[in-house]
Amino acid sequence: MPNKEIQARASFEIIRYANCWEDPQLLLDGLNIGENAHCLSIASAGDNSFALLTKNPALVVAVDLSAVQLACVELRKVAFAQLPSYEALLGFLGVASAENRVATYAELAPHLSPSVKAFWDKNQLLIANGIIHGGKFERYFQLFHQAVLPWVHSKKTIQALLEEKTLDQQTAFYHKHWNTWRWQLFFRLFFNRFVMGRFGRDPQFFKYVEELVISQHLHKRVAYALTHLSTNKNPYLTYILTGSFQQALPFYLRKEHYETIRHNVDKLQLHQGTVSSAIEHFGVKFDAFNLSDIFEYMEPALFKQVGEELLAGANPKARLAYWNMLVPRQLPQVLPDAVQPLEDLSQQLFLQDQAFFYKSFHVDEVL
Q1: Three-state DSSP class for 361?
Q2: Quick check: 31 and 301 in contact, CB under 8 A?
Q3: Which of 53, 167, 182, 244 is most buried (CB neighbours < 10 A)?
Q4: Strand-pair category, 360-366 with 339-341
Q5: Which of 337, 335, 334, 323 is nearest to 295 (CA)?
Q6: With a cut of 70, which residues of the chain have pLDDT below it?
Q7: Cα separation of 233 and 142, whole Å?
Q8: What is the DSSP secondary structure assignment for residue 98, as one 8-state letter?
Q9: Residue 209: helix, strand or coil by DSSP?
């Protein structure tokens, strides 16, 4: 998370996110990335930074305060570049089965930077199990899938939910078979502030959340996803309910994007630090910004300051995209003379968001 305030309060010694839980299609449709564009992207585990490479930009800078998150990105980058096939990539990452991921890692290790190699050398078990399963957030969902969901729905019902249906059929299935009293009860017990802080997100990430019942917000968002968006081949929903992506692959791991990402992978550069330090380090003006939900973790004065620093590193007409999950933060509200909201586009895209946790999605354009 690219601001020092949250760095001082939360630990970044572990993998928090082994996958990026934000829908990259919103970024690709909202940021209007042209060939030879310069993009700044919050790293997380790297999924969305790799997705930006499909637009053939000149540069994608993946930035994060966490060296561990950047280690996740670098290992993926090396895997894209060095593994001999698409199938080998899926197997190594943990999307598909593989015989010996540790042996594959030994072949990749010489291509890693020394600090990243040292991290993964100490975490061979994460590699053996597939690195897409190695984050705290993923273990939170695995706990839900393994220990909670069996008390609510059978495997047959779960698979039925994920089968291809019309939206009318999905709505009927949700009300008749899914949204039972057991689902509502266990959802409230598992997806609340305390449990999420203990097993999912760091409790400090909720510092600026006003008093509200988080489980109620999430229940409404899940209900929307299960009745208004296709449940078939939704990677986020599939992972949460089954513990794997199965055939619902994240955007950057779909076969149709493999060759493009592999061809462009050297355009992806990593930077540990704040977004402001990344802008200063690379010395270019950026055309597109994937800002994840970083503004949620900032007090209001810092939010405005970071916004000013971002705009100082932006080209005219550059676009900035970001999510709000629980804390409302919008750049045009604090910098109205510098950036304008693309409200219709933002709302249109948000209604299609397959990563259904968030309260809103925003695309702003530099004036």
Answers
A1: strand
A2: no
A3: 53
A4: antiparallel
A5: 323
A6: 1-12, 193-213
A7: 19
A8: -
A9: coil
300 Cβ contact partners less than 8 Å away, ≥ 6 residues apart: 334
Q: Of 227, 245, 241, 215, whose CA–CA distance to 326 is shortest?
A: 215
Query: 85-119 b/e with 16+ CB inside 10 Å = b?
Result: ebeebbbbbbbbebeebeebbeebeeebeeebbeb
Residue with tokens 């081949």: 233
In one-letter notation, the amino acid at residue 83 is L
Predicted confidence at residue 213, as pLDDT, reads 64
With CA atoms as reference, report the closest residue to 353 among 196, 228, 258: 228
Q: Is the pTM of this model over 0.70?
A: yes
DSSP 290: E
At residue 220, φ and ψ (nearest 5 deg) are -65, -40
From CA 300, how far away is CA 293, in angstroms rounded?
A: 14
Alpha carbons 296 and 298: distance in angstroms, whole number: 6
| Structure tokens that stand for 306 in this block | 């970071």
Give residue for tokens 């619902």.
248
Q: Which domains does the chain have, with CATH numbers?
A: 4-134+250-366 (3.40.50.150), 149-242 (no CATH)
Angle between helices 86-93 and 67-82 (to 10 degrees): 150
The residue assigned the tokens 């999307």 is 95
CA distances from 242 to 176, 234, 299, 364 (A): 21, 12, 37, 36
